[in-house]
Design brief:
The chain contains 14 helices and 17 strands. With about 550 residues, the protein is α+β, with helices and mostly antiparallel strands. It folds into five domains: about 10-40 and about 330-370; about 75-205, Beta-Lactamase (2-Layer Sandwich), CATH 3.30.450; about 210-330, PAS domain (Beta-Lactamase), CATH 3.30.450; about 380-445; about 455-560, Beta-Lactamase.
Length: about 550
């Protein structure tokens, strides 16, 4: 199946349709990006505001309990009774009267504050419980109750981490149950620099109820919205919309048991919140972050959310919405944009097909005429009676066909002339090749003669006296091969005195343009000193300028010796 259009009309339709679709898609994408940016900005603002306001309310919730604990610890009656007890012995009647008055004071605070479930006064040194007051539905702690926070609260108020209560506390259904999440808030009991004890209050974490967070919630805008508080260890500290679903799925049995822990993949808003929150000191710090890219929530659904840290703790308030609901307007916009783009594409394709039919038919006629002209039919003409661009194109084609006919006729005549000229050139080239062949044969013969002459024959360049030819007799005489001598001067091959003598005689021949006959000259060879009878003549070009020096040397050493 062909994917690329083969006709002009199909190409016009395809290109126009593609261009219109690309333009529509580009406009739709730009519109989508603008709306997405606006949607994300609104989501980030909404989620961030909900998380930060919830964190502020939880901070206020903690601060109220911390201030109340410090207020109880600073009670004048409490301080005076403890000062009096310090001066008495446990067996004194007055000592027990002071204890009774202290108990009344503590019971009054316990019963008047619904969120205080236990108040204990500890010895600041040993941590031992001196006095305890509990609500009606709370067990009284034993005398050897733990001393958590006593040492830490000797100077400043202290808040403990979340833990499962070891005594019975009312759960969310107001039924006394073990393991209810709670924490201690402790404050020093002192008058100036004098420390009398440490007062510790047990607070139920479940009192961070849904109403506390609902004031900052956004459930009116989104059905799947939720805001809840999570500790740095990943435990839920407040009710959430999906709590009943967790109970129904069997992941938890009771909310009062401290086992509702987040178990989600890494890389989402939870892990980001915990990791960054744990790195910071528990001092007032603004810390907030949103995750709008989508992360896997408690039940594996994609969520978008934001979190804010509760200052002074490792807790975070998380506000989140189901991703599908959060981006539902964008999804609807995408569908509308897609339908709009398809509609524009169909309209443009129909209009393009109608217009192309009006244009392509005469163009196809022109294309057929051009094909016939290209195949050699010089009689073809279009003859269109139209005043538009296509008519002018047809007229231009007819003029071109006339010009082609005239040009081809001239070319045929010139081709005949060129054929005759080529035949003459081929004859001349054949004769030239024959002469070159004869010259090569002559050069081969001459080289053979020179190499086989029994006396030394050499040739030098007239410019720099470099050796360009040395026959075999010369090579055997001086003891150098032709490869070793070609391109060298006498100074490269012979002793300086000999080379100077040879060069002087060479210049004498070239400058005087005459033959020089050297009856005797000595030359150092690998066979020792040899005596040569040498003749040198210049070889000139057509202008009489010497180009080479030709030398013939005969070894007359034996003749001289005899």
């Amino acid at each position: 199946m062909r994917l690329i259009p083969t006709s002009f009309r199909a190409s016009i339709v395809a290109i126009t349709a593609l261009a219109s679709l690309i333009a529509a898609a580009a406009m739709g994408y730009a519109h989508y990006r603008t709306h997405r940016a606006s949607c994300e900005s609104n989501l980030a603002q909404l989620l961030g505001l909900s998380a930060s306001e919830s964190a502020t309310r939880v901070e206020r919730w903690l601060e109220q309990r911390r201030e109340l604990t410090a207020s109880i610890a600073g009670n004048t009656t409490l301080i005076e009774e403890l000062r009096r007890m310090r001066q008495l012995k446990p067996e004194d009647d007055e000592y027990f009267l002071s204890l009774y008055r202290l108990k009344q004071e503590l019971d009054q605070n316990t019963l008047s504050r619904q969120f205080i479930y236990e108040i204990t006064v500890h010895d600041p040194q040993t941590g031992r419980v001196l006095l305890a007051s509990t609500g009606d539905d709370v067990d009284l702690p034993s005398a050897d109750d733990n001393d958590d926070g006593v040492a830490e609260a000797r100077n400043v108020p202290w808040i403990s981490p979340i833990f499962a209560s070891e005594i019975l506390l009312p759960d969310e259904s107001r039924t006394s149950s073990p393991g209810v999440p709670c924490m201690f808030i402790a404050a020093p009991i002192h008058d100036g620099d004098e420390l009398f004890g440490v007062l510790r209050v047990r607070v139920r974490v479940l009192d961070i109820g849904e109403n506390l967070l609902r004031a900052a919630d956004y459930s009116d805008a989104y059905a799947t919205s939720d805001t809840y508080v999570v500790s740095g260890d990943g435990f839920f500290l407040s009710p959430s919309h999906f709590e009943q679903r967790l109970k129904a799925s069997g992941r938890i049995k009771q909310r009062s048991m401290l086992d509702l822990k987040i178990q989600t993949p890494t890389g989402n808003v939870f892990t980001s919140a915990f990791q960054q929150s744990q790195k910071l000191p528990k001092t007032p710090t603004t810390l907030q972050q949103a995750d709008l890219g989508g992360y896997e929530g408690i039940f594996g659904k994609k969520e978008v959310g934001a979190w804010a840290r509760v200052n002074g703790t490792d807790w975070v308030c998380i506000a989140e919405i189901d991703q599908a609901e959060a981006y539902a307007p964008l999804t609807q916009l995408t569908r509308i944009t897609l339908l709009f783009s398809v509609g524009i594409g169909v309209l443009v394709i129909g209009l393009t097909m109608w217009l192309s039919g009006r244009i392509v038919a005469p163009l196809k006629s022109l294309a057929g005429a051009a094909t016939r002209l290209a195949s050699g039919d010089r009689t073809v003409r279009c003859r269109m009676d139209r005043a538009d661009e296509i008519g002018r194109l047809a007229t231009a084609f007819d003029h071109m066909a006339d010009a082609v006919d005239t040009t081809m006729t001239d070319l045929e005549q010139k081709a005949q002339q060129l054929t005759a000229s080529n035949q003459q050139l081929e004859s001349e080239l054949a004769q030239r090749h024959r002469i070159e062949h004869e010259l090569r044969d002559a050069n081969v013969f001459l080289d053979s003669v020179i190499d086989n002459i029994p006396i030394m024959l050499f040739m030098k360049d007239a410019e720099d006296l470099r050796i360009i030819r040395y026959n075999k007799a010369g090579q055997e005489l001086v003891g150098y091969s032709a490869e070793e001598m070609i391109g060298k001067t006498d100074f490269d091959l012979f002793p300086p005195e000999e080379a100077e003598f040879f060069a002087r005689k060479d210049r004498e021949v070239l400058n005087g343009l005459k033959r020089v006959d050297i009856e005797e000259e000595e030359i150092l060879t690998d066979k020792g000193i040899r005596i040569l009878h040498t003749k040198k003549i210049p070889v000139c070009d057509e202008h009489g300028k010497p180009r080479f020096l030709l030398g013939i040397a005969e070894d007359i050493t034996e003749k001289k010796q005899t």
